[in-house]
Task: structure prediction
Amino acid sequence: MQDLRQFDRDGIHFRYPANWKLELDEDAGSGGWTVTLTSPQTAFALFALRPDAHSIVQLADETLAAIRSEYQELDAEDCVETVAGQMAVGHDIDFVTIDTLSICRTRCVDTPAGPLLILRQVSEYDRQKNEPVLDAILASLTVDDDE
Result:
């Protein structure tokens, strides 16, 4: 990724391409927020701090249920991996929208500010170009230790 910008909030940091659009929505009620990064094509990433979530497992399951309510015919596999140096849980999800395969990856990690949902999605249309960018955004994620 060239020409990068940096996101920093509540001890959560990541880099993203300067030509991607960033939108921040705050949830004053829960103290959480959602950042949506949109590529010039169809790919996007979402980072949602959810201090109201009870656990990362519950957040991952609720996210899958929400996606399943929109796309009943999807394939989903449970996934556990290391993200930002800690255990992350989520799902690898594939579904079809308007005759195009969409690839969605969700991961949830604990942070001192609360559970963080990370969702990355790309269509088959621009997967070759943008999946490596989404992977690089995730790889750049760091979470400060509890102080």
Remarks:
- Residues 4-143 form a domain with the Protein Transport Mog1p; Chain A fold (CATH 3.40.1000.10).
- Helices lie at 56-70, 127-140.
- The chain has two helices and ten strands.
- The chain has one domain: 4-143.
